[in-house]
């Protein structure tokens, strides 16, 4: 049996008064007598069953050490407070930590009864009940401090001769805990807000055409990684919208999203804009220096818009940053580590620029780990109508108007080729909402080029039935066109509802609701 196990057992045996073999009882072992010639003693339980054996040489050593050690002085070096009371509840000992934690003088406490010092003294209850007690958090009212307590009765044989309490001041820990809880509450709230923002952003992205929905799906998938993304697409097609969706759907959503328009910054300033500078780095530099966009975006996402316009020399520096994960701040000896997800966007064909030696091929491959190409508006079928309605609602609210769009205006919108994509559509609808004085937006309220009908490429989607609609009543004509569209889609997909649904770019729920509304299912 190990000495430590034995010593544990000693306290059990001490309480039960069980003797060891050889008529040597526990008192003898704790005292200075160990009168036995045997080197091994058996340890018995209260039923006299042998539990193990003890090496008497070890016990002799321990007993002699116990009598040598200055126990009471040692107790004064504990960080925990200690108080011992006698069998009547009278305080017979307090250590230094007790005095410090509770801020009392020994002469005001020692010799007094515990219940006179602390009304709700739990230690007195322990003395009465003879049962140990643990209190993780107890308020000492007299000093308004929280302590963590461990209280035990003291036995001599089977008789209670007092009790002791060991306690730690946890006021500070408790305060810190509360602070941590408060801050984690704030952080949770912030994350919830960001989640709501990300859902709201998704709801604001309008489009049901399969080619646009595919990009949205890919954006959400790539958001779960830290891979560099190159978003390409024509002017105003929604590259920034897609980039924000990636950021907001990623684990970085609560961290900064920093946009840099590479074509808008003069070549001489781009380095300090991106990487910042130290105080005194050059004549005219700001006091205290300046943080660059990469540092500002740390832990978040940096969006390098119009990357095709970045000067060649800067491209080399950017490549180094992407490869090393650190920036060279102007005027600073040591590089600064940054953890930034990079998303670049372009409306120029980068492979073409590479051929012309205007864009570095190595940088292109670094940025183009995942490529998302946002389709032009003219290739998104009925998204034009959905977006037109969305922007009409938005601007009607902004200008406090109640307007609907006429059938002929819809047709003009559907016919136009939209070289400026969603941005052009957005501006055209704002233009129409401002100019429209009646309740309905007519063709003539649209900008001239759209009104005159610059014909787009023939639409391969399902918009044809809309243009066949002769009814001028808005609600009726839309309902009629909708039913025609659904029938056409079912026809083209040979009756397969899943295929028809994909063709129309509708969600399953919307598709089945519309089938029902149009009487196409029982
Ligand atoms: N699918 C969409 N739903 C709603 N609004 C959109 C959508 N796509 C783009 N927009 C709006 O159209 C405008 C242009 O979009 P965005 O700035 O993302 O285009 P871009 O391709 O980044 O433009 P640029 O080529 O000029 O950088 C913005 O106001 C944006 O909010």
TrEMBL record:
Domain PAS: 67-112
KW Transcription (keyword) present: yes
Domain Sigma-54 factor interaction, first and last residues per copy: 205-434
Keyword set, alphabetical order: ATP-binding, DNA-binding, Nucleotide-binding, Transcription, Transcription regulation
PANTHER family, per the entry: C4-DICARBOXYLATE TRANSPORT TRANSCRIPTIONAL REGULATORY PROTEIN DCTD (PTHR32071:SF57), TRANSCRIPTIONAL REGULATORY PROTEIN (PTHR32071)
NCBIfam families for the chain: sensory_box
This protein's name: PAS domain S-box-containing protein
Species: Youngiibacter multivorans
């Amino acid at each position: 049996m190990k000495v430590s196990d034995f010593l544990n057992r000693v306290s059990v045996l001490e309480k039960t008064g069980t003797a060891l073999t050889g008529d040597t009882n526990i008192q003898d072992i704790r005292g200075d007598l160990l009168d036995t010639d045997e080197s091994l003693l058996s340890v018995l339980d209260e039923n006299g069953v042998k539990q193990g054996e003890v090496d008497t040489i070890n016990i002799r050593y321990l007993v002699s050490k116990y009598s040598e050690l200055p126990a009471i002085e040692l107790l004064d070096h504990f960080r925990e407070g200690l108080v011992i009371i006698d069998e009547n509840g009278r305080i017979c000992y307090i250590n230094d930590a007790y005095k410090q934690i509770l801020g009392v003088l020994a002469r005001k406490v020692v010799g007094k009864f515990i219940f006179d010092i602390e009304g709700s003294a739990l230690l007195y209850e322990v003395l009465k009940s003879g049962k140990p007690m643990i209190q993780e958090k107890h308020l000492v009212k007299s000093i308004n401090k929280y302590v963590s307590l461990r209280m035990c009765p003291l036995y001599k044989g089977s008789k209670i001769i007092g009790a002791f309490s060991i306690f730690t001041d946890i006021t500070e820990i408790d305060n810190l805990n509360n602070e941590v809880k408060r801050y984690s509450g704030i952080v949770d709230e912030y994350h919830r807000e960001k989640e709501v923002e990300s859902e709201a952003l998704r709801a604001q992205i309008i489009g049901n055409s399969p080619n646009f929905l595919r990009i949205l799906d890919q954006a959400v998938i790539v958001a779960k990684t830290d891979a560099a993304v190159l978003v390409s697409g024509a002017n105003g097609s929604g590259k920034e919208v897609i980039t924000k969706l990636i950021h907001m759907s990623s684990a970085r959503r609560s961290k900064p999203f920093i946009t840099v328009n590479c074509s808008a910054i003069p070549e001489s300033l781009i380095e300090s804009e991106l990487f910042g500078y130290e105080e005194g780095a050059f004549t005219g530099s700001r006091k205290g220096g300046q943080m660059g966009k990469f540092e500002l975006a740390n832990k978040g996402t940096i969006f390098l818009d119009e990357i095709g316009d970045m000067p060649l020399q800067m491209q080399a520096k950017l490549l180094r940053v992407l490869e090393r994960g650190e920036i060279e701040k102007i005027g600073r000896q040591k590089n600064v580590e940054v953890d930034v997800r990079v998303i670049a966007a372009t409306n120029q064909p980068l492979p073409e620029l590479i051929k012309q030696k205007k864009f570095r091929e190595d940088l292109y491959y670094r940025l183009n780990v995942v490529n998302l190409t946002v389709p032009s508006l003219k290739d998104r079928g009925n998204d034009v109508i959905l977006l037109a309605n969305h922007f009409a609602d938005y601007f009607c609210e902004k200008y406090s108007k109640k307007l609907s769009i006429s059938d002929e205006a819809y047709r003009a919108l559907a016919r136009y080729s939209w070289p400026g994509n969603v941005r052009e559509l957005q501006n055209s609808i704002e233009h129409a909402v401002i100019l429209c004085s009646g309740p309905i937006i007519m063709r003539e309220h649209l900008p001239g080029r759209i009104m005159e009908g610059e014909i787009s490429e023939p639409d391969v989607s399902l918009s044809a039935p809309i243009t066949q609609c002769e009814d001028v009543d808005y609600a009726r004509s839309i309902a009629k066109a909708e039913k025609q569209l659904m029938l056409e889609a079912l026809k083209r997909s040979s009756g397969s509802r899943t295929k028809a649904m994909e063709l129309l770019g509708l969600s399953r729920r919307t598709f089945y609701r519309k089938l029902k509304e149009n009487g196409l299912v029982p």
